[in-house]
Amino acid sequence: MKKLSEERSERILKKHGIPFAKHVLTKSPEEAAEAGRKLGYPVVMKVSSKDVLHKTETGGVMTDIRDADEAIKAFRKIKASVKRKVPKARIDGILVQHMFSGREVIIGAKRDPQFGPVLMFGLGGVFVEVMKDVSFRLIPITAKDATEMIREIKGYPVLKGVRGQRPVKFKALERCLVGVSRIMEQNGDIKEMDLNPVMINEDAATAVDVRILGS
């Protein structure tokens, strides 16, 4: 399996109505600083490379970059870390991306040899990594299925709002789940995909990182 480029992955998401965070691909520390100024600090910076499947594990992501000096340092640090941990990686550049606030969720899908395409949903961070708090459905799904998947996880109250928080925009989250279902249904060459995280708040749901593997 090979990893699709950031550009192609983004086109696939947009075609199926899944918003993706605005970003700029930069080739130098100075470009990164300027991109941050145009997007508006704070920003997230991450490596862009088909050879890097898990950005965080290679030091390929830095968050909460607050000014040009930090952007320049982050660019150099990310590049050096990725080259050290994945020496043969071809690096296209460093993505500078608008930083979203909200609650993190993960949406994933893969083709199971027995059941066919399967969709997964859960809260991001510790909830999915440690608590394994996720729900599953066979693809394709309907909007009703998406609603049920969201309500099934133990962390559902976090999305409804705790300690005075407003509830997230559930309709936007449901559209993302149905969108991923359609992508898998209509693109037989896509074997696996992860939107991790999708940032969801009271106004919108926006994918801020995508990994799509194809044949």
Report on the structure:
The strands form two sheets. Strands 1, 6, 7, 8, 9, 10 and 11 form a seven-stranded antiparallel beta sheet that branches. Strands 2-5-3-4 form a four-stranded antiparallel beta sheet, with helices on one face. The N and C termini lie close together (5 Å). The protein has 215 residues and is of the alpha+beta class. It has two domains: 22-98, 2-Layer Sandwich (Dna Ligase, domain 1), CATH 3.30.1490; 103-214, ATP-grasp fold, B domain (D-amino Acid Aminotransferase, Chain A, domain 1, 2-Layer Sandwich). It has seven helices and eleven strands. It is globular, with a radius of gyration of 17 Å. Strand 6 (103-112) and strand 7 form a beta hairpin. The chain has helices at 6-15, 29-39, 68-85, 126-129, 143-152, 156-160, 170-186; strands at residues 2-3, 23-26, 43-48, 61-65, 93-98, 103-112, 116-123, 134-138, 190-200, 205-207, 210-214.
